Fold this protein.
Amino acid sequence: MTEALSKHTTMQVGGEPKTLQVVDSEQEFFDACLKLWATGEDWFILGGGSNVVFDDELEDLNVIKVESKGIEVTQDGDFVLVKAQAGESWDGLVKFCVENGYAGIEAISGVPGTVGGSPVQNIGAYGQEVSETITRVSFLDYQTKQQVILNNADLNFAYRDSDIKRGRVGAIGWVEFRLELLDGMSVPMKSGQITNYLDKPYGSQLPLQKVRDTVITLRSGKGMVIDPRDQNTVSCGSFFTNPIVDEIRALEFPEEMQKWKVDGGLKLSAGWLIEHAGIEKGFKLPGSNAAISEKHALAITNTGGATASEILELARFIQERVAARWGINLVPEPNLIGFS
């Protein structure tokens, strides 16, 4: 089986790979990996296709698409351990947890992609990151060809980063999360956007469903929830990570720019940097079908028929403008596969 990867990604770009194999269980997935790795050919593991941009020419690439399903729950005092297979929808897992009163990932609602991709770049939103709740990961190591169980500390999580993203190559079979039982309430909210929207004090515990509904509303307003009726959602979500600078460097930027304290310094708003480098929402290069979202300056969208090269051309243009104006190098968040 093979067909263009534009049909399997939220950005809707990408050519036809050499092979495309769909697997629906952890065993089938790991067996397919071992067989493919033994060939020495180029390979890629694809989940929901929400955090990747494939090149238009991929004739040497072999792709394994993970569609394994299953969620297991074990009670552990005032906590639950939720083990989800790699092919489960991430937002489907969040919905399941909210409906069952499991707190800890509710603010990461609406994020596209699969569970297997969540630890790789330590996905997060509105003050929560998966690194705060992940306990274990089933991992097939590319170097040793052995299946191992990695604990949270083994992954060395950082902002939108992990050892896996930094080069510990392999495949994730399932992910386990430790979530709290708080009588239908959330963990304390670390997002002013959520608490301000609901007119509640920062740090409030709120009904889980109210948090989820609020996050979906906020994300939808930015075109960050996939909606076939909205061309602004044909994207990878945020195309660049928010840069982190030390507190001295942060003083160079206007007070009006939103900044967040994180380990290592202050996180700056990449969207603000883009707009204040003279690139407006909806901007596109002449003759291109790639554009900045009309709703959020941090998203690059496919307005219809864009090529992968057009997406990358716009991304480079943004990087150059922001570097020239602010001296900041914006780092792409999605994986860029097949580009020379």
Q: What stands out?
A: The CA atoms of residues 37 and 142 lie 8 Å apart.
